[in-house]
Amino acid sequence: MFEKILIANRGEIACRVIKTARRMGIKTVAVYSEADANARHVRLADEAVLIGPAAVKESYLVIDRIIAAAKQTGAQAIHPGYGFLSENEDFCDACEREGIVFIGPPVSAIRAMGSKSEAKKLMEAARVPLTPGYHGDNQEPTYLHEQADQIGYPVLIKAAAGGGGKGMRLVEKSDDFIAALASCKREAASSFGDEHVLVEKYITRPRHIEIQVFGDTHGNCVYLFERDCSVQRRHQKVLEEAPAPGMTPERRAAMGKAAVEAAKAVGYVGAGTVEFIANQDGSFYFMEMNTRLQVEHPVTEMITGLDLVEWQLRVASGEPLPLAQEQLQIRGHALEARIYAEDPAKGFLPSTGKLVHLAPPAEGLHVRVDTGVEEGDEISPFYDPMIAKLIVWDENRDQALARMLQALADYRVVGVANNIEFLSRLTNCPAFANADLDTGLIEREKAYLFPEGEVPPAEVYLVVALGELLREAAWAEGEAERGNDPGSPWHARDGWRLNATASRELLFRFGETQKAVTVAYRGRDRYTLTVDCRSTEARGKLDDRGGLRVEFDGRRLGATVIVAGEKRHVFLDGRTWQLANVDPLHHAGEGGGAEGGLLAPMPGKVIALLAEAGSKVEKGAPLLILEAMKMEHTITAPATGTLKAFRFAVGDQVGDGAELVEFEPAKG
């Protein structure tokens, strides 16, 4: 077994590998960019080596620097994690040349499966079922358009070197093909350095089911059952589970056999995933093979009781697989939700900033949290905005769903926008709860998942007001203890008045709506709160992490109120509400950029201008494309009007909130 390994990755997966290595007594070396100097994976590793600036092309993708770091520290092997160089054949070759073990498959397998089009040819020879499509080398737009027309719409354009949902476009009709192809090729070139694409028939209401395979250097290969990853957004997985709902033993065996045959066809060694598109009728087609550990591997670990990173390390060191196929068993059901710093209300745009408050649910037998960040860390614009993976397990799917809902309700994130509430609605969505699954579930359940016009109930205003009062009282008590006369009644915040009851108003704003809570003091830590003409007797206790135990008219409940500037983040009954504390003496403007301007929703690079300056455009017309975090974001006209000028040219970097376009809405 290795004595020391280097982890050529960052964030959650680097921390995940460190955890297993430490348990096995293996020392770890982290690599980091300048932006990650204080990152959690750097703090956890035994050693760390700086490999370059923030940009991945100058750090995490520079093979020579990573190899040099391994040699400098005496690491015997390199674990690539997922993403970055994990499926890069040149990196695997470089490790081999330098006598460093690559913890993954041989370069021949990476090469064979690295091109989706070449992989399809191999699978066809191995008699693995394939989706109808064009996987050839002719990349002329006109020719690809003709192939798509012959296949029949809808079709899916996919980057041959792609993965992670990047470089994919669904095309519904022939007229849209050329524009979608150009966008797909741009994103593929940016993300993978290769604009080669393939075109496939898009299966209506498909399920995405993948099989975990594992091979060793002794000729053994097994499958560790399946994961259902059908719930996706923009071809990126959102919720994953194992086993797949409705999977029969016969179908599982058939898919497992096909996956093992696919792995054997390329002499596979280590952890890999064979992904299939499955019809509702049970038929399935090979989609691609990921020659690495998957993001969603924890659900497989939870139902098998195995550590797949440990298996990777053992196989890479030359040991045989720990178990044979007949020894592998499924127990219970597991779900994984990806907690991201993104704003569902703004089309899931990534959010950046400091994690002012981060409190995950308690871990144990049923709940696991894999993360690369801690409270106080930054979500930067340079990398994937994942906060954590939340994994739950229970004896059956219904119980696992209940576990997930509770764990999401217990999660507390302040400082960046996040998708936790969206994940709660998704988990609770009748279609998902009843396992009516396909890759279009999020789109078809939009009305349920994206409710409009929701406003906080009165109870939220009661909670935030009580939190404010208790915080004031705690502050006054602290000031008294620091003073010369801590027992003085003048320090008390109990509203005492001679022959009168003290009262005041607290003002809070939600969106554009401002609401008052009237407070009448009833003694120490007791109040009558009135909102919407209804009075409530209130009392409670506040801890130093914003946790509130409140009592309203004798009914007790728990809540959390986190203060961030003027914002009050209220966590109550599994929901999160963001209110602003209004100071009636403060009259500063709201800001938000120049009137008539369109602002950048996040830092990025302008890669295309889609309209002419001076032209009249309709509401929703695309104006420009901003690339951020390797994804394209189209900025559209907010109303019918005139595009007067662009503030930036193609290739320019822009900051969050930068004015992109001078736009004049039509009058009348």
UniProtKB/TrEMBL annotation:
Biotin carboxylation domain residues are: 1-447
Query: Which InterPro entries does the UniProt record give?
Result: ATP-grasp, BC-like_N, Biotin_carboxylase_complex, Biotin_carboxylation_dom, Biotin_COase_C, Biotin_lipoyl, CPAse_ATP-bd, MCC_alpha_BT
Residues annotated as domain Lipoyl-binding: 587-664
The source's domain of life comes to Bacteria
Query: What are the protein's UniProt keywords?
Result: ATP-binding, Biotin, Ligase, Nucleotide-binding
Cofactor(s) the record lists:
biotin
Boundaries of every ATP-grasp domain copy: 120-317
Gene3D superfamilies given in the database record: 2.40.50.100, 3.30.700.40, ATP-grasp fold, B domain
The cross-references to PANTHER family, in alphabetical order and at most eight, read:
CARBOXYLASE:PYRUVATE/ACETYL-COA/PROPIONYL-COA CARBOXYLASE (PTHR18866), METHYLCROTONOYL-COA CARBOXYLASE SUBUNIT ALPHA, MITOCHONDRIAL-RELATED (PTHR18866:SF33)
User: Any idea what this protein is called?
Assistant: Acetyl-CoA carboxylase biotin carboxylase subunit
